[in-house]
Protein 1
Amino acid sequence: MSYTESFNEIEIIYADNYLVVVNKPTLLLSVPGRGKDKQDCLISRLSIKFPAILTVHRLDWETSGLTVLALNKDIHRQLSRQFQEREVNKQYVAVVYGHPEHDQGEINLPLRCDWENRPRQIVDPVQGKASQTFWQCLERLSDHSRILLKPVTGRSHQLRVHLQQLGHPILGDPLYAHPQALKMAERLLLHASQLEFKHPASGEMVKFRSPVPF
């Protein structure tokens, strides 16, 4: 069954007997964090309506947009494999500080956790894990640009660090933006706008889109 509804502030884009696709709002954890104050999250809200629901992948607390969740262990296993094998087409839109020199490009920078400053991630050519992002400039405005991002890998904070290293941090990013870029937006301007994968039950490719809210 395909439908759009609002459930406890979570927009459900699609749901059937196997999986659910939702539009996660900004400032909501994907899964519970440590401490009583971090128990409200996407999976806990959705579990009220879908008791067997399982997280397949995560979006950052500040990032909004599309995420898919499984409704049984077999579907979870199949979807997780698609993410691990990089068979899922993910697209994001970000608004960044300044104007990139080129109209499009590829970023390959290995990333790892900055253990002394968690949850920050850093570029480490020795211990970092390979991370690849393709990007395209959609629009150049007075002092910022709109960027389409297509990550191949799915490292933590990958898009945020890659754009910072490109010299164009995402506006409103509390971890990686410099003070001027941070002040230019009230939230992290990063949105998961498209998600395409093979439906584990039907075997057909399915594609979902979410309008960018900024």
Protein 2
Amino acid sequence: MSESRPSRLHQPYYRNGPSHRDGADVSFLDIKRMFGFRTITIGRWVNKQEQQTAANLFFDALCDLMDILLVPEQVISLNGSLSLAFGRGGRKHSSAHYESNTRVLALAKNAGGGSLAHEWMHAFDHYICDKLFLQTSANEFASAVWLSDRSIRAHALNTKLALCYSSIFLSEDGREPNDYVKRSALADTHLNCFYYAQPQELVARAFEATIQDQKIKNAFLVQGTKQSPEAKLGIYPQDELRQTISHKLLDYFCHLGHAINK
């Protein structure tokens, strides 16, 4: 990238949500304290101006996510178990990723915007696994374990979450993969890979679609589930199924937030 061209970080991200900062700047330390993240790490090549821009973007996006899901701050940091990284520890060909070994959600400096909701759902999918199922191992994701038909811990919230996974993966009668899964598998076939039909990716993209469909819009949090080249591949939930998944996910998180705030 040439020095004269502004980085993606400095290009505007559309947002229509309420004011969370009243125009004031926040720091990553403010974010760590407010949400309770375990650690937040900034790459050495992120200058002060970029760090300030990113902190404001992260803060607004995380507050918007909290408002959409109707959950308190501790849910966003997954009870203080989640770490954030910005502009460091990137992966080749990846603008953002979640590392299950270290429980770190990482966004690249110039290309991570719009991926936050997707990667957060990966983190949640990992975090919730041993709360949802009786027998799990450290690096398993609830989405993949759900497909293995393991025993679920008895709890009303777990029943609701299981319904979320069912709606993401299965037809209405529960007997076969739904159209969303089939389209994703077809995309993998065309691309000669196994990526879009992975359980974790199906769940993360379904969550993205849910977040983007809400009245609160934040392009740093999520974008691209409707008109992007990826969306045109058919790898996001569509039509009535998209609405069904959205309803079940929002219902689960609403009840989770209510249970915590009691």
